[in-house]
Amino acid sequence: MLIVGSKALNYHFPDLKREVKDIDIIGTKDDIKYLISALNPENVRDTENITTLFNIQTPNDFFNTKNVEILNADTSEALSEYVKFDTENGKLGNDIRYASPEVLLSLKKSHIHFPIKFEKHIQDYNFLLSKLKEDKLQRITKINFKETEKRVGELKTPSLKKSTMNFFGQSDGYVKYFYIHDDIHRVMAHYDKPVYEDMQVDESSAWCEKDMWEKFTFEKKAKCVLEEAYVIALERKIIPMLNGCGEIISSKKAFNWAIMRICTTLCSGWFRQFATDNYTEIVKYYNPDYVKKFLKSETDGLIKKQVHNI
Q1: Count of CB atoms situated within 10 Å of the CB of 215
Q2: Across the strands, what pairs with 44?
Q3: Where are the domains positioned within the chain?
């Protein structure tokens, strides 16, 4: 059995002091039977891939949470590979051991683009990446990603290989546009123009060139991500709220939601990976007054409202 999650993270990096709400384990069907017998849970929820033990009746010094979640290695190629990889690390006896940091990073990376408990996972992922520098289990990570897609659904993102008109038209029926998208980008730019324009060979296309991106400094890349996040937060959350047709939300929560979308289902490829891998550093450049900046641009006549849908 491999202990994963916050319990394993605390073992390797005790200074983190990550709260352990539930104990997460990778185990076989036999391991599941053993834990049910040993911990005597009040309830058991059993699926093909995950078994959860609720309100365990016989806790001990190690199994000291109310709930224990076991990921079934017998039904997963990736999970069984993790168990085979970690044969010596953090042994506790009774064939129980802590997963290595390499396995913990691989698990986080294989799930990070799925918008589930993103705020918690992105912090852990960036921390582990800062310690290990790279994912050394890329083959297993890819397998686990594919298996996750089979369980929760394929991760679909918009394609940039189309004209800007067709690209933004993909959201028709879902997003009501009060301002022209490119105009919001222009007034939210950190420099004299939006950063994404320095990646475009053809202004009529939404496609951006990676070679041009690679020439940017880290700060310029970070500000490119932030510009996208500000525009998404304004367009999808703040502006609809101000016009009486959206949820009440703070500027910070709107931004958090927008950058989560960039890291998960709104973007793909190298841009999404940069945003994900550098999330904690990027948000250090966050401007808490981005909404004020936008509203001032409207007051100053730099951007004009439109009522119709694009």
Answers
A1: 10
A2: 53
A3: 2-152, 164-299
CATH topology of domain 2-152: Beta Polymerase; domain 2 (3.30.460)
**Do 187 and 302 touch, CB atoms closer than 8 A?**
yes
Closest Cα to residue 31, out of 77, 64, 75, 86?
Answer: 75
Q: Are 198 and 204 in contact (CB under 8 A)?
A: no
> First-to-last CA distance in the chain?
54
For the beta sheet containing 22-27, the strands, ordered from the edge strand earlier in sequence to the opposite edge, are 41-46, 50-56, 67-72, 22-27, 2-4, 96-98, 91-93
For the entire predicted model, the pTM comes to 0.85
pLDDT by residue, tens only, the chain of 310 residues? 999 999 999 999 999 888 899 999 999 999 999 999 999 999 999 999 999 999 999 999 899 999 999 999 999 999 999 999 987 666 666 678 999 999 999 999 999 999 888 998 999 999 999 999 999 999 999 999 999 998 888 877 655 444 444 433 444 444 566 888 888 999 999 998 998 888 876 554 455 778 888 999 999 999 999 999 999 999 999 999 998 888 899 999 999 999 999 999 988 889 999 999 999 999 999 999 999 999 999 898 888 877 554 3
118 Cβ contact list (under 8 Å, min separation 6): 112, 260, 263, 264
Q: Where do we find the tokens 């289902």? A: 265
Q: Give 56's strand partners.
A: 41
Tell me whether residue 191 is exposed, middle or buried, using C-beta atoms within 10 angstroms of its C-beta: 0 to 12, 13 to 18, 19 or more.
Answer: exposed
